[in-house]
Amino acid sequence: MIMALSEEVNKLAKYLMVSDIPRSVAYTLVYIKDKGEITSVEIERETGLRQPEVSIAMQWLRRKGWIVKRNMKKEGKGRPIHGYKLSKDFNEILEEIINDREKKIEEINNTINQLKTFQK
Q1: How far apart are CA 54 and CA 68, in angstroms?
Q2: Beta partners for 38?
Q3: CA neighbours within 13 Å on the CB side: how many for 115?
Q4: 57-111 pLDDT, tens per residue?
């Protein structure tokens, strides 16, 4: 259950999901886009995502090279705290997503054209 996010943020997240971005990644990305460094606890609290969803989203985003992770000091015991922030401008990330979608469209069109050559 996603809460506390504006209509525009929810709309952007939905477009990202249609673009083959996993749900938890989409909501994490739109939440972090206008922030500086944040923790996974903040993401959980503000998006309504559960801890495992945020953890998987962060791994996905790190593999894409879209966020960086920093170990933060923590008092006492418990899970270590990590700070996360975008590694590049959000518009650059959107451009990568758009380029990926355009390549997918091109592949689909090529496949359609190849299939048409088999029509009698």
Answers
A1: 14
A2: 84
A3: 6
A4: 999 999 999 999 988 877 777 777 889 999 999 999 999 999 999 999 999 999 9
Dist. CA 71–CA 74, nearest whole Å? 9
Q: What is the CA radius of gyration of the chain?
A: 18
20-55 confidence digits (pLDDT tens):
999 999 999 999 998 989 999 999 998 899 999 999
Q: CA-CA distance, 51 to 63, in Å (whole number)?
A: 18
The CA distances from residue 54 to 27, 93, 108, 114, in Å, are 9, 19, 32, 41
- Burial class (CB within 10 angstroms; exposed 0-12, middle 13-18, buried 19+) of 96: middle
Could you give the domains of the chain? 5-87 (1.10.10.10)
> How many other C-beta atoms are found inside a 10 Å radius of the C-beta of residue 30?
24
